[in-house]
Every structure is written in structure tokens, then in C-alpha cells.
């Protein structure tokens, strides 16, 4: 098969964040996330491929958690025959409820996967009351 017969495919841009969400120029993708809950905390896992740890910003302001990841442009020397990853940034925001202890949120980032642990405040955790 000749190289010319294979045409590079563009990334499906249905996952592009609304333009109004970006505060900088360029394309912003909305990273897909999984969120699950235990009695003690919420865990948020976001895929943000291509983002280096020093290009990742996680902020909390006014009960809003903001995740911004910047992706550096791909090397121009590559001759793509298929391209599903677009060059752009990632942006996602979440409103935090009052049950989240914002002071104790921690993050781990490895191989393009961001994991945020959002612990619940003590009063939001279930507990048993024993009858004396």
C-alpha cells in the first residue's frame, strides 16, 4: 500500500469544549472523566494525554474546581498516516458541593491520567450512633 493511499484522519472534535470555556487562544478539549464515591471521598479520574506535569493547572476558586492542561505541538517531522490526537489544550470545570473538604484535596498525575481525591468533610461522612 502506498503512503499516499492512506489519508490522515482528523480527531473527532465532538469532545471539544465550548469556545467560551477557554481563556486562551486555541482548541480546548473536554477531557473524559470517571467519578466514583465512597463513604470517605470522591475520586475523579481524567484522561489528559500529551500534557506534561508542569503544563497542568488545577485550581479551586469560589467552589469551582478547574483543570487546565496545555499540550505542546507535535513534532513537525512526523509523517502521519493516521492522527486521532489533535493538538490543543484540555479544560474542565466542576462545581464542588459543601460536602467536599477543599483543604484536603490531593492530586496524582501519571502517564496522562490525573487522579484527584476529594475527601468529604467529617459531618458528611456516614456514622452510626449507638444507643446507650
From TrEMBL:
It comes from the Bacteria. It comes from Candidatus Zymogenus saltonus. This is Hsp20/alpha crystallin family protein. Residues 24-132 form the SHSP domain. Gene3D superfamilies: 2.60.40.790. Belongs to the small heat shock protein (HSP20) family.
Amino acid at each position: 500500500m502506498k503512503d499516499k493511499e492512506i489519508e490522515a484522519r482528523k480527531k473527532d472534535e465532538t469532545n471539544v469544549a465550548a469556545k467560551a470555556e477557554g481563556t486562551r487562544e486555541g482548541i480546548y478539549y473536554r477531557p473524559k472523566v470517571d467519578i466514583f464515591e465512597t463513604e470517605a471521598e470522591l475520586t475523579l479520574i481524567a484522561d489528559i494525554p500529551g500534557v506534561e506535569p508542569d503544563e497542568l493547572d488545577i485550581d479551586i476558586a469560589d467552589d469551582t474546581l478547574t483543570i487546565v492542561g496545555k499540550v505542546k505541538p507535535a513534532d513537525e517531522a512526523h509523517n502521519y498516516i493516521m492522527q486521532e490526537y489533535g493538538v490543543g489544550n484540555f479544560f474542565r470545570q466542576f462545581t464542588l458541593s459543601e460536602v467536599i473538604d477543599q483543604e484536603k484535596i490531593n492530586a496524582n498525575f501519571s502517564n496522562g491520567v490525573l487522579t484527584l481525591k476529594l475527601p468529604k468533610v467529617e459531618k458528611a461522612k456516614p456514622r452510626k450512633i449507638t444507643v446507650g
